[in-house]
Design a protein that fits this description.
Largest sheet: 7 strands, mixed
Structural class: mainly beta
Radius of gyration: 18 Å
Distance between the termini: 45 Å
Number of strands: 24
Number of domains: 1
Number of helices: 2
Strand order of the largest sheet: 1-3-4-11-6-9-12
CATH topology: Jelly Rolls
Order of helices and strands: EHHEEEEEEEEEEEEEEEEEEEEEEE
CATH superfamily: Jelly Rolls
CATH class: Mainly Beta
């Protein structure tokens, strides 16, 4: 398996506000996370979050993961969460196999040494979307099926933001050191996500947008409330959201996204709401 590792350094908002569209994409958008037979990874300097996508097309894809973080093994001082957005597959962690159907999740605790990824059908491979952050303690690894995630019904069709939010890695589901991870799916006829906008200066966030038709896209808004920029996001592309940035958007139709956070706390409601009138 080919492992492709890139690094994204932290950017100050005063820099981002002078960037071109191309510059913004280079610093905040991850365009190709799912390439058959490869592990695509981006090591970020936002709370040391590692964002990766694995698309296994042969048995036992794994090994050499330590190179992602310069340790003896990937989770020597880290924890990992993932959600499968592709076909059915398996993750084998220290000899234990976890079968994952589409939209199933998995948490691997600090100290897990050997990790391998497999697809049940290489012609319709699994697509494991991975987030990993530094850890300070070891919590038990655990499968989190789609039915185990906590469902929240949010928004309203009158404001075009009716959606279901599913919490996978959350204190009410299982203990983690700092990772929060979940999935939001817009209902037909709704396009807005995460509005009203908010900030959480104590945590970074990453979005993976998916279930976007070929000729559709999402306009992701980022930046300080009084100096917003936009990014055009296609299917299975991810966005890094620094603590100083809002993170919301609207699509040309319904879509889904996986959100993840790392930082000082695990309080999902720890956010600073932004007055809609202040957005510019």
């Amino acid at each position: 398996m080919t492992i492709d590792v890139r690094t994204r350094h932290a950017v100050h908002y005063s820099q981002s506000e002078r960037m071109t569209s191309e510059d913004l994409r280079e610093n905040f958008v991850i365009e190709n996370l799912f390439v058959a037979g490869t592990l695509q990874a981006v090591y970020t300097h936002y709370d040391r979050m590692l964002v990766a996508g694995v698309t296994p097309t042969q048995d036992g894809v794994g090994g050499e993961l330590a190179k992602l973080v310069g340790a003896d093994y990937l989770l020597e001082r880290r924890e990992l969460g993932l959600i499968n957005i592709g076909g059915s597959g398996r993750v084998i962690a220290d000899g234990r196999a976890y079968a994952l159907q589409p939209m199933d999740g998995l948490y691997l605790g600090m100290g897990t040494k050997e990790i391998f990824f497999e697809s049940d059908n290489p012609s319709a491979p699994a697509k494991f979307y991975i987030n990993s952050a530094p850890a300070h303690a070891t919590f038990p690894s655990r499968f989190v099926g789609s039915a185990e995630a906590i469902e929240n019904n949010l928004g309203d069709s009158a404001t075009s933001n009716k959606r279901k939010l599913y919490q996978y890695l959350h204190p009410k589901v299982l203990p983690t050191c700092q990772l929060l991870m979940g999935l939001t799916r817009l209902e037909t006829g709704s396009v807005w996500n995460t509005m009203p906008a908010h900030l959480h200066d104590r945590r970074m966030e990453a979005y993976l947008y998916f279930e976007i038709p070929e000729n559709a896209f999402v306009v992701h808004l980022m930046g300080r409330p009084a100096a917003t920029n936009h990014l055009i996001i296609r299917n299975e592309q991810a966005v890094l959201s620094p603590p100083w940035s809002i993170h919301c958007g609207a699509g040309t139709g319904a879509y889904a996204f996986i959100w993840s956070m790392a930082g000082d706390n695990q309080s999902f409601t720890d956010m600073d709401m932004v007055d809609m009138k202040s957005l510019k």
